Amino acid sequence: MKINQRFLLSICLSLFFVLTGCSQETKKEIVKGNGTRDNTPIILEPEASGEVTFGNDKITFDISHASEGYVMVKYTGDNPKVKVRILNPNGDDPYTYNVLDGYNVYPLTGGNGEYIFTAFENVSGSEYTQLFYDAQNIEIKNDYTPYLYPNQYVNYDKNTKAIKMGQKIAEGADDDLDVVTYIYDYVINNITYDYDKASDVKTGNLSNYLPDVDEILEKKTGICFDYAAVMATMLRTQNIPTRMMIGYVTIDGNSIYHAWIGVYIHDIGWIDDFIEFDGENWSMLDPTLISDSQNNSKIKEFIKNHDNYMTKYLY
């Protein structure tokens, strides 16, 4: 394992978290030379094979491949606003998703046990009525397969351009830590913060916003939720399990919605919060701040303090 390498696992989602602001200047791409690690993309495609399904005449849940860590849902009714709620076995806050056209892919991130699936149709305004309810016992193959597939929040397929960019960036890598480092460098040096978009995405209402990773790369701007989606897409297709983690950051006693990522490294395990290794310790960095805050000791201390971060959802 290499040391003294900085790489991203923490991304700010809130405009208010950008205490010093992000640079508005697009920087040069950071692409390394040839490395020894195989950087051929591995693109896992979710499948609704119809082997194990449940539902009714309006909605179908396909858990044929739930052991891989995802469920596929398709609505065939005529209501324009439909939601699915998934309660994990641990009983924490349920995950609520919008149901779009075609099959939707939702991750199963609660491990083994009973998942409760509920579907709702809109009545008017913010009022919904229950369309379907069922509980299913599911056994996940292992704790990282849910984070190798695309889903509604980390959405990509074989035609996604970000995958090719991730492959290019990974050319210089000798191991997975190199890949995470280089992709982190690329993101913080080529994507600037979109303050206008940040003001439109309201705290706690993320279900109505879904990142488009190719659009983000093309425009070279986005909110920090976008940073996370781009990195997760590149890393997952480089066969590095990557969690998108949503929660809260506490600043001066105020809790602000926040997003970061965690990666699974072989022989190390999950690295969720401690993301810089100096030979003795891991510490936390945040790319939105780190790119413009190299000399600000207060911000450095803040983003290295694990107690400032609280995970609520995993995608």
Brief summary:
With 315 residues, the chain is an alpha+beta fold.
What can you see in these coordinates?
- It is built from seven helices and 18 strands.
- β16 (276-277) and β17 form a beta hairpin.
- The strands form five sheets. Strands 2, 13, 14, 15 and 18 form a five-stranded antiparallel sheet that branches.
- The model is unreliable at 1-31 and 274-295 (pLDDT under 50).
- The longest helix has 15 residues, at 176-190.
- By secondary structure, the protein is an alpha+beta fold.
- It folds into two domains: 5-41 and 151-314, C8orf32 fold (Roll), CATH 3.10.620; 53-142, Immunoglobulins (Immunoglobulin-like).
Helical coverage, percent range: 10-25%
The chain-level mean pLDDT equals 80
N-to-C series of helices and strands: EEEEEEEEEEHHEHHEHEEEEEHHE
Content-based structural category: alpha+beta
What fraction of the residues are assigned to beta strands by DSSP? 25-35%
CATH topology of the largest domain: C8orf32 fold
Give the overall shape: globular
Q: Could you tell me the radius of gyration in angstroms?
A: 19 Å
The CATH architecture designation of the largest domain is Roll
For the secondary structure, the number of strands is 18
User: What is the rounded distance between the termini?
Assistant: 27 Å
